[in-house]
Write a structure and sequence with these properties.
With about 110 residues, this protein is mostly helical. Helices cover about 60% and strands about 0% of the residues.
């Protein structure tokens, strides 16, 4: 997370970085769906070629899912303090008599 940035700025940065991927994927998906619809319609008689309402609904649903998938991790990243996110994980305490291996932390003896 950027030091000194507000939570909203970090969230919008992450969502804006996901937007080009979302737009490219939507455009390629719609183009592929139109081509595939023509192929399938040529194979079956009486099949509707293109239904704009259903294509728009599915596209809107997928865009909503993609935006949510980029927003939720950004929100989670901004919930903790920056110092906590940047610090290394804590090292477990060693018991007396622990040699090189950390099997003493698991309660087992090591073979020698």
């Amino acid at each position: 997370m950027a030091l000194g940035a507000s939570h909203g700025a970090v969230r919008s940065l992450i969502v804006r970085q996901a937007a080009p991927v979302l737009i490219t994927g939507s455009a390629l998906g719609l183009g592929g769906a139109m081509i595939l619809a023509r192929v399938v319609a040529s194979r079956f008689a009486g099949l509707a070629l293109f239904d704009p309402a259903s294509v728009a609904a599915v596209t809107a649903l997928l865009i909503g899912v993609a935006l949510t998938a980029s927003y939720l991790p950004a929100r989670r990243a901004t919930t903790a303090a920056t110092a906590i996110r940047l610090s290394p994980p804590p090292v477990p305490a060693r018991r007396a008599g622990c040699a090189r291996s950390h099997s003493c932390l698991r309660g087992r003896r090591t073979r020698r």
